[in-house]
Amino acid sequence: MCLTCSRTSSLVNGSPTREFDLRSGLRQGDLLSLFLFLIIMEGFNLDIKKAVELNIIKGASVGGDNINISHLLYADDAVIVSEWNQEEMVNIIRIFNIFFLASGLKINISKSNVYGINVSDEEMAGMVSHSGCCSGSFPFTYLGIPLGSNMNLIANWKPLIDKFKKRLSFWQARMLSYGGRLTLIKSVLGSIDKFVDGNWKWIWNRDCIGGRNEEYLANLVNLLPNIQFTDEHDGYSWAIDNSNEYSVFSTRNFIDNQILITDNIKTRWVKELPIKINIPLWRIARDRLPNRVNLHQRGIVLQRNDCPVCNSEAETLNHLFFFCELAQDLWRKIRLWCDSNIPNFSNWNDWISWYDNWVGLNTSKCRAYCIVAAYFWIMWRFRNGVVFQDEVLNKGDLFDLIRSTSYFCYFNRSRYKINYNNWLLKPL
Ligand SMILES: [Zn+2]
Question: pLDDT tens across 172-184, in order?
Answer without folding.
Answer: 555 666 666 666 6
